[in-house]
């Protein structure tokens, strides 16, 4: 299945060479696909350690293609990127009209933040104020929205009523709590002073209290998770917290070798962003279906959408204004982080290599790196890679039985690619 999808993606470009960096990334550490007879007649994907950051593929690539530098030296062609309207996402499913995900999930998310505040109830007023600070109802709630849509789609797929099970609703809430706790901790680590258009918790109350607030939110999420009463679900969502910590440690480091550097970036992106979505989707599938292949579909959709979401986020750091983003622009460069646009730009401007290794710490590094990225096709390449991950997410979710929620999850991939904040 991955082969035809790859050929469709290739139609986006009129001058794409087979050994471009983007194609190499797509196939890097590709996983094998084995087919098994099942009630659904679907392929079964094996999850290999180290493949967290790469889309699934059945294509076996000549090892020579993994030499990034020589491939790029031989081929210097430019990709012609499509507008969203020319995206081939719609060719992967037959539904004429895709449902709006926010509209479908609205009923399930109406009381989300009130329920979270109930979980965080404490008598100490200051701690309550800290914990409630980001749960003000102004967040995008992307993660719980994906979770409730996935849960309903899986319930219908499994010949049940589409309504959420209590445990599935709890997982949607827990996903938002874990995400918010990670934001609180990230802001302390990064020394950020602005989040979602307002001052960060560490800026208002100080770093020590911010850390304690993040810990308290995590502890409340853990208690809510334990009440679900499913050991497998507990194990799956506990993996998210481990991945968040490992991803943060990965972000503190860098790689000298270009091959290792991009693999490092994608794996870090999975652990810090996509793991929560992937494992939350898997968790709601476990509560309604015993088929491991269904669990894998849910996981793979969440993983690919999550990585695409972060790739677009990395692009917006270069293309959106600070006021629009709700946080400073060029924030990643100022933190010493080389994201997708920078790594792609490094292929055209080797001067960036030294800046990446010293984490843009010398005077003028941030401004020069910013200009190099804008002069390169790094932004376009990163957008193109995000589209490829969304293609894989669509391929996975299209294996489920048709339903309005399944269609909304397909529609969501388009919204991920076109968001501007």
Automatic annotation (TrEMBL):
Reaction it catalyzes: 7 isopentenyl diphosphate + (2E,6E)-farnesyl diphosphate = all-trans-decaprenyl diphosphate + 7 diphosphate; 6 isopentenyl diphosphate + (2E,6E)-farnesyl diphosphate = all-trans-nonaprenyl diphosphate + 6 diphosphate
Pfam families: polyprenyl_synt
Cofactor entry: Mg(2+)
Molecular function terms, GO-annotated: all-trans-decaprenyl-diphosphate synthase activity; metal ion binding
Annotated spans, Disordered: 38-62
Keyword check for Transferase: yes
An example Gene Ontology biological process: ubiquinone biosynthetic process
Pathway: Cofactor biosynthesis; ubiquinone biosynthesis
Gene Ontology CC entries for this record: heterotetrameric polyprenyl diphosphate synthase complex
Keywords, ordered alphabetically: Isoprene biosynthesis, Lipid metabolism, Magnesium, Metal-binding, Mitochondrion, Transferase
Mitochondrion among keywords: yes
PROSITE patterns referenced in this protein's UniProt entry, alphabetically: POLYPRENYL_SYNTHASE_1, POLYPRENYL_SYNTHASE_2
EC number(s) per entry: 2.5.1.91
Stored SUPFAM superfamilies: Terpenoid synthases
Cell compartment(s), UniProt: Mitochondrion
Complexes and interactors: Heterotetramer composed of 2 PDSS1/DPS1 and 2 PDSS2/DLP1 subunits.
Family: Belongs to the FPP/GGPP synthase family.
Function: Heterotetrameric enzyme that catalyzes the condensation of farnesyl diphosphate (FPP), which acts as a primer, and isopentenyl diphosphate (IPP) to produce prenyl diphosphates of varying chain lengths and participates in the determination of the side chain of ubiquinone. Supplies nona and decaprenyl diphosphate, the precursors for the side chain of the isoprenoid quinones ubiquinone-9 (Q9)and ubiquinone-10 (Q10) respectively. The enzyme adds isopentenyl diphosphate molecules sequentially to farnesyl diphosphate with trans stereochemistry.
Designated name of the protein: All trans-polyprenyl-diphosphate synthase PDSS1
Upper lineage: Eukaryota, Metazoa, Chordata, Craniata, Vertebrata
